[in-house]
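Handout, section B. The chain below has 168 residues.
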Amino acid sequence: AAAGLSYVGAYVINTYKSYDNFLQDKYAVLPAVIIICVAVVMFIIGLIGCCATFRESRVGLGLFLAIILVIFIAEVSAFVLGFVYREKVKTDVQGTMRSVFEKYDGKNPESTVVDYLQEQLHCCGVKNYSDWTTTKWFNSTGNNSVPLSCCRRDTKNCTGRLDQPQEL
């Protein structure tokens, strides 16, 4: 279990690097760090449990049980907090995404991140392609289109024009 949690924590941290322009709050990586710390603690607790079982120590097994109960309570608390604050996280991420989309010009680092995100998630805009109509980039190009990263992968010769939404 500790190895699995370590993998999950490392995966989240690695994924965070791809989307760090959208997650301006550096505490967004905190859950991954906590997961890795929990994995280390679980490994140590597992060793305590194995040693207590091997020695048939009532005190060691009691300590093991108490630690497992504390971890269970912490997990339930983390789940409840995640459930309670999910809307706040959603609105914060959408607000940050809108500000990054507003900086899009097709050349800067934010543009590269937006294109990467849209291609990886197979999406266009924050909610849909109409989000692009309010950006400076859309108004400056004057060609009534969205970036080519909005195009579906299976569509050939996609121009990103809004009059062809089936290609987006």
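Note. The longest helix spans residues 58-84. Compare this with the example in section A.
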